[in-house]
TrEMBL record:
Description of how the protein assembles with itself and partners: Homodimer.
Top-level taxon of origin: Eukaryota
Portion held of the full protein: 65 to 436 of 458
Signal peptide: none
Domain (Gcp-like) ranges: 23-327
Keywords in alphabetical order: Acyltransferase, Metal-binding, Mitochondrion, Transferase, Transit peptide, tRNA processing
Gene Ontology biological process terms from the UniProt entry: tRNA threonylcarbamoyladenosine modification
General function of this protein: Required for the formation of a threonylcarbamoyl group on adenosine at position 37 (t(6)A37) in mitochondrial tRNAs that read codons beginning with adenine. Probably involved in the transfer of the threonylcarbamoyl moiety of threonylcarbamoyl-AMP (TC-AMP) to the N6 group of A37. Involved in mitochondrial genome maintenance.
Protein encoded by which gene: GCP1
Annotated protein name in UniProt: Glycoprotease 1
Organism expressing this protein natively: Rhynchospora breviuscula
UniProt-annotated location(s): Mitochondrion
Family of this protein: Belongs to the KAE1 / TsaD family.
Catalytic activity: L-threonylcarbamoyladenylate + adenosine(37) in tRNA = N(6)-L-threonylcarbamoyladenosine(37) in tRNA + AMP + H(+)
Listed GO MF terms: metal ion binding; tRNA N(6)-L-threonylcarbamoyladenine synthase activity
């Protein structure tokens, strides 16, 4: 089985060709880093245009690198949500054009499910059921994966995701946003003292598995203001060594508390999950923020203390990519879950099945289930 995967849910245009034995034949990403730096975030209309400009080339490159043509494909997988509908549309339209023209089945993929399932491509030992922490710019999920397509949401964020907090903090500290705020902040934090600025850990009084990062963002903002750091408008590259030191301290202190919050929620999620499914052996951590070494090291400890093994995909499979979409397409296809080839030449204004908001599974709360 040879699957083409297409991903356009956010700011990266990605495509990959993956075989059902787990062999990655190609992976191509065109990122909108320049736009992100310029507009300070994803502007849907701009992002849509960038996807539309990139999509044909990215898909062609993925096929070329795999030394294949459309005729060699078994099916096409594409992200249909969650994400920005204008952006999702570009990928879905491309996928359906190819599938229609070459009579290929099509699999609509959930972006967050793909972040989780790519761990099974990386490590074949990861069987269901498993626990997953999915951490990125837009999502902060704790998921109990019972079986393919059957997920229970143990926790989510009540406001911002951790990646958003990394990005904002990085911007306020005047870091180079071209590679994304996360990697730049992680690097600077290595120079700082993580205990120098006292931030409080979010949501300690809530004994559940939900997250909150808006308050921590505010704490960072206030700390920057109270120290009178000339940050945002003075790039770190032109900061004095004292100034650089203060920024590094803030970065390290932010990172410590941001990750402590993850650790505490994971600890509780493991307790919940092991009660529901005592056979769980793996904690999967994926999504862009899972490429962070500090995050990996801390969560490795938490998993180990609970008798679980941590599985983190390599960084380029943690951030948005086409491989995870192709792989998730393969998993569903093998279970018979796919759509027949669309008719060739669908009209331009066709109403695609796009799911901008699409929960991955039912919500679970221990308090509630005990009360019943
Ligand atoms: P979604 O939320 O829909 O999954 P996304 O657009 O957030 O998608 P991802 O590529 O999954 O895309 O995650 C990007 C996020 O990961 C950004 O917020 C980025 O700052 C963060 N990130 C990437 N690398 C690191 C790192 N080394 N440390 C911390 N955060 C990182
Ligand atoms: Fe993502």
């Amino acid at each position: 089985l040879v699957m083409l995967g297409i991903e356009t849910s956010c700011d990266d245009t990605a495509a990959a060709v993956v075989r059902s034995d787990g062999q990655i034949l190609s992976q191509v990403i065109s990122s909108q880093a320049d736009l992100l730096v310029k507009y300070g975030g994803v502007a849907p209309k701009m992002a849509e245009e960038a996807h539309a400009l990139a999509i044909d080339g990215v898909v062609q490159q993925a096929l070329d690198n795999a030394k294949l043509t459309e005729e060699n494909l078994s099916a096409v997988a594409v992200t249909i949500g969650p994400g920005l509908s204008l952006c999702l549309r570009v990928g879905v339209q491309k996928a359906r054009r190819i599938a229609g023209k070459f009579r290929l089945p099509i699999v609509g993929v959930h972006h967050m499910e793909a972040h989780a399932l790519v761990a099974r491509l990386v490590n074949k030992k990861v069987q269901f059921p498993f626990l997953a922490l999915l951490i990125s710019g837009g999502h902060n999920l704790l998921i109990l994966a019972h079986s393919l397509g059957h997920y229970v949401q143990l926790g989510t964020t009540i406001d911002d995701a951790i990646g958003e907090a990394y990005d904002k903090t990085a911007r306020w500290l005047g870091l180079d946003m071209r590679r994304g705020g996360g990697p730049a902040l992680e690097e600077l934090a290595l120079e700082g003292d993580p205990t120098s600025v006292k931030f409080s850990v979010p949501m300690r009084q809530h004994k559940d598995c939900n997250f909150s990062y808006a308050g921590l963002k505010t704490q960072v903002r206030l700390a920057i203001e109270s120290q009178n750091l000339p940050t945002e408008n003075v790039p770190i590259s032109s900061a004095s060594s004292d100034d650089r030191r203060s920024r590094a301290d803030l970065a390290a202190s932010f990172q410590r508390v941001a990750v402590l919050h993850l650790e505490e929620r994971c600890q509780r999620a493991m307790e919940w999950a092991l009660k529901i499914e005592p056979s769980i052996k793996y904690l999967v951590v994926s999504g862009g923020v899972a490429s962070n070494s500090f995050v990996r090291a801390r969560l490795n400890d938490v998993a180990g203390r609970n008798g679980l093994e941590l599985v983190c995909p390599p960084p380029r499979l943690c951030t948005d990519n086409g491989v995870m979409i192709a792989w998730t397409g393969i998993e569903h296809y093998l279970m018979g879950r796919f759509d027949p080839p669309p008719p060739p030449n669908e009209p331009e204004n066709f109403q695609y099945d796009l799911r901008p908001r699409w929960p991955l599974g039912e919500e679970y709360s221990e308090g509630r289930s005990v009360a019943r």
